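Sat 14:20. Reprocessing the chain from the morning session after the first attempt stalled halfway. Input below, unchanged.
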Amino acid sequence: MSKQEIRAQDLLSVPGVRVAAVASHIRYANRLDLVLIELAQGSTVAGVFTLNAFCAAPVHVARKHLLSSGGAIRYLLVNTGNANAGTGQRGLDDAIASCDYVAKHAGVSIDAVLPFSTGVIGENLPVAKICAGVPNAFAALGEDWLNTAKGIMTTDTVPKARSVRIEIAGKPVVITGITKGAGMIKPNMATMLSYVFTDARIEQATLQGLLSRVVDQSFNRITVDGDTSTNDCCVLSATGLSGVNIQASDASGFAAFEAALQALVKELAKDIIRDAEGAKKFVTVDIRGGGNTNECLKVAYAISESPLVKTALSASDPNWGRILAAIGRAGVPELDVSKITIHLGKVCIVSNGTLAPSYTEAQGQAEMSKAEIEITVDLARGQARETVWTSDLSEEYVRINASYRS
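Finished this time. Tokens:
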């Protein structure tokens, strides 16, 4: 399974956006762990956030500031090493204090600053360390997107970033995004932490609609371990400095921009799976012939999150009975198992609900030994189709998470 190797020259700067990453010793020494992102005045910002009921203090504050500012955000402040989740009123006060420090340093209102945190849950935010790092971050603001992507990493092994330049009405538009995430991955709105920027001009309500649709088909279609984080956030910012307006009334331009945005964010989502904790396999679970989207996703996630399926994937074991069992317990009403077909890659392993006559163990072994595996299920119930991306479950995943706080 190949991971995306990002080089600094692969990333495009976005007019109206300056970025910086510095070491503030929040949890570890000599590690980039504080990121500051500055947006040009007049930028619009949209966001989606975790639906975990124990959402972190910065999530509460970011939602509030996004609403009270009407999307007129100037700064994003991101720290790693500490999630500031499960920290009660003090956590809220600490998140607000961090925003206030940035706001006073920049001369903007406090609700023009959005806070984000990722790391260990249940520990108080080291506000003094963050505030000590803020002046350094302001001094470093520039175009170093690669280090910025590194600065939001936790258990990630590689930085995750993507860029694209498209033309709309003969004018160039840039989209650049960074993301982090490797474990505690089953977004229920977006993903871990993700920030996407464009120099297009997009009204805030339109921007929010775009983000929600794009996230639904990308970050909401990945799972590593079935755990939805307390801190998941995805933000889309538009500076408008390209002079290109993206609006629904321009059907062709709007469609071109949305397609480019969807493609970029979908690749960022896949990058998370390729870097999943301890993973050796990138797995596509494609469910076809569903009666509706919901039942397709039920089956996809039942397969993708089954420890038995995932450990079989890790061992390259074509134990197709585990896939069959996961489908059966997915909760699809009145499922006619006698019509179900399952493929591993191009190899049919189950036909009409039982072992395909043409199937051989050697064929299954050859498919399961690949670094990239596709599991296709046809429910033969309708026309709905959904795809989820996942990883295998290895001993290394257990080791990483058993020692996460040490």
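The CA atoms of residues 105 and 135 lie 8 Å apart.
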